[in-house]
Amino acid sequence: MEHGAEVRDMSLKEQTAQVLRELAEAAGLRSGKVLVVGTSTSEAAGRRIGTSGALDIAEQLLQGIQEVQQELGFDTVYQCCEHLNRALVMEREVLERLSLNEVAAIPVPKAGGSMAAAAYRSFRQPCLAEHVAADAGLDIGETLIGMHLRHVAVPFRPSRRSIGEARVTAAFTRPKLIGGERAVYRLENESGAGFCD
Predict the structure, then answer these.
(1) What are phi and psi of 78, to 5 degrees?
(2) CA angle 162–33–36, rounded 5-degree value
(3) For residue 96, is pLDDT > 90?
(4) What is the pTM of this model?
(5) Which of 2, 30, 170, 197 has the fewest Cβ atoms within 10 angstroms?
(6) If you ran DSSP here, which 8-state letter would residue 11 be given?
(7) CA gyration radius for the chain?
(8) Hey, which residues does 34 pair with through a beta bridge?
């Protein structure tokens, strides 16, 4: 079987799970970590963002994300579209654990987006928060999730660059490196060399 035929035979769920597994490995996603997902189901279907949202596509993508999430134990939050100011759908437990500010709305395909609407309906206790500082992000269709990532974002290039017809962008985060020219970021020995008096 040709590589191209193999790729075409993969479902949206399988494509999503493949990309997310690669990101999860690079980002060290595990219990206690947060992934933010932004999705344009229109772009996944080969149309312009915001024009042809589809719950059936959202469900397939959601299944791929949930498969990996259940394996590794991280939390996932889903970015709404600009009509809900890019608020985030999440489980209430995540909102409370992170002490986030709750906002009130119920995402629907025309106001929030199909992915946010599908995620909201899949959660046990769904709610929306205004902001989050996620450890990693998966952007399916160039929805611009950067505002919800911790500083400092590190671009990640998965082996698959699209899911369906949507371009995929991903990132994980790292702590800020502080200090000046004398700063050390890796401990090489225990001698104390280089420490201030």
Answers:
(1) -120, 125
(2) 40
(3) yes
(4) 0.87
(5) 197
(6) -
(7) 19
(8) 75
